[in-house]
Amino acid sequence: MVEVFVDGRPVQVPEGSAAIQACELAGVEIPRFCYHERLAVAGNCRMCLVEVERAPKPVASCAMPVMPGMKIKTNTPLVHKAREGVMEFLLANHPLDCPVCDWGGECDLQDQSMRFGSDRSRQHEPTGRRAVENKNLGPLVKTSMNRCIQCTRCVRFANEVAGAEELGTTGRGNDMQIGTYIEKTLATEMSGNVIDLCPVGALTAKPYAFSYRAWELKRTESVDVMDAVGSAIRVDTRGTEVMRISPRENDDVNEEWISDKTRFAFDGLKRQRLTHPLMREGDRFVPCTWEAALGRVADAARAAQPEERIAVAGPFADAESLVALKDLFNRWDSEHLFLETNAPELVGQPAGFADLRANYLFNATIVGAEQADAVLFVGTNPRHEAAIINTRFRKAFLHNRCDFAAISPEMTLNYDCVNLGDSLAALTDAKHPFFERLRAAKHPMIVLGSGLLERPDAAQHALHAAHALAKTCTNAAPGWTAVNFLQRQASAAAAFDLGFAATTAAAAAKRPAAKFVYLLGADEVAPAALPADAFVVYQGSHGDAGAALADVVLPGAAYTEKSATYVNTEGRVQRVRAALTPPLAARDDWAILRALSEFAGTPLPYASVQGVRARLAEVAPSFAAPNVQAAQPTALAVAAAVAAKAKPSKAKAKALPAVTLPVTDFYLTDAISRNSRTMAQCSRAFTHQIAESAHEAHIAV
Amino acid sequence: MSWKGAVSQTLRELRLHMCQTGPGSAGLRAFVQTEYPALKAQYPDLPVLVREAAGVEARAYGRFAHGREQRLTLEGLSQQDVAAKLKQLVASSA
């Protein structure tokens, strides 16, 4: 620690920190544009000038390391004058289009010019401002480069965090420009974050440009469900519409980034919504009352034998509705509870998979992933399945020289990764030189993907082989868990926690053909897996693939419309908050199941949301303790013991099919993103690399 | 311990709640470490949900046919006592 004085007040700061950090610790706010605590220091905006005793000139506090006994002055005439000067230079070339700028009201330049700028202008000439051509960065980021103040935050973000190294600067001084030099879209799944980083309105959101003003929005703090990371988000609404989704800070999960799907898929919430209960009559759906719909569902459920009733939960199912669904089916003496990841064949999972939390959670935790120094991916593309966790892996790559290898089909990651082929035999015999590196690593990680669950025998084999491999990692730090399972659906960890999908493959083979199928937001079920005469109920928010199979459709709430609990891939229990009310006759999902239990004559013992949550804690105690509890020593020990007994063999691995990746198109993975126009454009531009026509580009710019 | 024939026909699920470190859960933790593989070998299709969370009381829930549940408090018991009580629970029929 070093002692420095800020405006005469002593503060203790860690050695090597910048003067701006010392000022922040002392509670003095320093204006800045280019400095950002999660990015490298650039020192080019000069807004953070402070006076340092015995320094001849004002110094940029973001680039000035603290020295013992340093005396920083932030409130002197010299500093005021310097700030005014910098502001004047920045504004000399900044267009006066605040009234039509999307960033107006949230703009750092606006705020700081009011607070630190001069109160009058010396500029009288009507022309002479710098003009820069706008760049086409693809369907998400809109550019208005006249407004750019060259802070280079976007360039640093793209290069460091997102790994999209094509964004950079060209030219010097007044001719400096941000861009890709050769016109190119910003092809990264994290591109939306440059919009938040931009301190002026040079980079704004293209999909919802000009649709709101910042001060009209109602803000609701919530959690994302587009993947299993559980990023902290803020849902901004106006009236009955979501206008924008932006990240909140949560250092344990998403720092302050979110993926483009999280940010932009919300327009899917406005299309193809289910608003009324529907009943199939012939080949069309007819709206009906809740009484009629629930009565018909209850009759159909009663008509089936216990073994003939099955339920499938989709990617957005919250813990409350999962536990209500499970209790309801258990009351009907059915154990056939599936998770969509087991679809399309509805085969269940390896015996005992849901028994131990260590089997299905990301045990090293998201923060821990940053420390990794050797990582093996098995059947997963973290960039597509958990883009936020992938940024942590990129950090490990940059800062710990982490080595990566993958047993998967070829994939493009934003760090170096050796491909070991797509056969699980590579994991079992572990001969490749990479495995030597893994065994020698202090923080080795073996990341199993949720796509493996499509084949229960493959999942079991991979799990056992991973534990066998982890046992040989003798150099690992004490308390470090090498075996990790990466979920890709927000509902998965909660469903496993609650003992969902407890049907094993062996039991599934003996199961009679289903007569009553309950799809809780499940859209990936192959129609062929459902017998033609089965009565299918779909409960969910969107009229997508699942609803098309249904005999009765029950409209549920989307994640912005309910207060519900989700568990992320590391086992963190988090709550989403309702920003809106469900549309028309749609209802909270757990309440629909509660009502159905009444109609079926097997009422559930809870009738309030508090009651459901108490029940959640009774089924899995982690729901009562909202902090992540990654260490599960007993479960880990038991999982290792079970794996040691199983002795995964190479011959067995050879008989298994090649590993595949479950997500082929990052932008179109579920009912919400499939109904989003923005995501469709992204899929075209980024996944399929179809360039916009000149006409479209003209409209968009 | 042999688990052959120890589990009743109507038992659908066994849930074990414990603290990762608490002394009250020590017996249940030891039980899970030694007995879980044997129990699972005998009844591979019976879900035995081992759930660890900081500070919870050691407990077991047996879920039987038609969603009937029985709860057992195992806080502070030794591994032998846990085994004996759990045997009783899994053998009962709700």
Question: What this model shows, in words?
Answer:
The complex is a heterodimer of chains A (701) and B (94). Among the domains of chain A are: 2-92, Ubiquitin-like (UB roll); 278-353 and 493-623, 3-Layer(aba) Sandwich (Rossmann fold), CATH 3.40.50.740; 363-486 and 632-655, 3-Layer(aba) Sandwich (Dimethylsulfoxide Reductase, domain 2). Helix content of chain A is 30%, strand content 16%. Chain A is of the alpha/beta class. In chain B, helix 1 crosses helix 2. The mean pLDDT of chain B is 91. Chain B has helices at 26-42, 79-91; strands at residues 11-18, 48-52, 59-64, 69-73. In chain B, strands 2-1-3-4 form a 4-stranded mixed sheet, covered by helices on one side. Chain B has one domain: Glutaredoxin, CATH 3.40.30. Chain B is built from 2 helices and 4 strands, in the order E-H-E-E-E-H. The A-B interface holds A 327, 330-333, 335, 351-352, 354-357, 497, 499, 502, 504, 506-507, 602, 618-622, 624-625, 627, 629, 631-635, 637-638, 641-642, 645 and B 12-13, 15, 17-18, 20, 29, 32-33, 36-37, 40, 44-45, 47-56, 61, 63, 65-67.
Summarize the structure.
Chain A: Residues 78-117 form the 4Fe-4S His(Cys)3-ligated-type domain. Chain A: Belongs to the complex I 75 kDa subunit family. The complex is a heterodimer of chains A (701) and B (94). By secondary structure, chain A is of the alpha/beta class.
